[in-house]
Design goal:
Blueprint: H1 2-26, H2 28-58, H3 67-81, H4 85-93, H5 97-117
Protein name: Exclusion suppressor FxsA
Keywords: Membrane, Transmembrane, Transmembrane helix
InterPro entries: FxsA
Length: 126
């Protein structure tokens, strides 16, 4: 628990320094516009993907070939909704296919490790 507090404090400090530097470089209004635009885009992406996921589940379509891509894109949308320049950059990077192709094997190994340890809950939607 103590590590999480240290990581969160470090993240907050890095975001604050980034905001100060960008504020000095581009000014208040462009920085505010960037944050509002990234939040709106993140909400749009999450809503659109959620609609697609629920529609596929209603139609009983298989989504497993695209599941890791969908998880990455939902996570990207969530990162865009969170205020901050670092989270916005990370969210935008997740939209790039080569970044997702680098992250998907890591996610797959994490899921396999969790399943082999028995720490993974699977819900069958039938």
């Amino acid at each position: 628990m103590k590590k999480i507090i240290y990581y969160w404090a470090a993240y907050g400090l890095i975001e604050l320094i980034t905001y100060i530097l960008l504020f000095q470089w581009i000014g208040f209004w462009p920085l505010l516009f960037i944050q509002i635009a990234s939040t709106a885009f993140g909400i749009f992406i999450v809503k659109r993907l959620w609609r697609g996921i629920t529609q596929n589940m209603r139609d009983r379509k298989a989504m497993s070939p695209y599941l890791l891509d969908t998880i990455c894109l939902v996570f990207a949308g969530i990162l865009l909704v969170i205020p901050g320049i670092i989270t916005t950059i990370c969210g935008l990077l997740l939209f790039l296919p080569f970044v997702r192709s680098w992250i998907k094997p890591l996610m797959n190994r994490w899921i396999e490790r969790r399943m082999s340890q028995g720490n993974f809950t699977y819900f069958d939607m039938k």
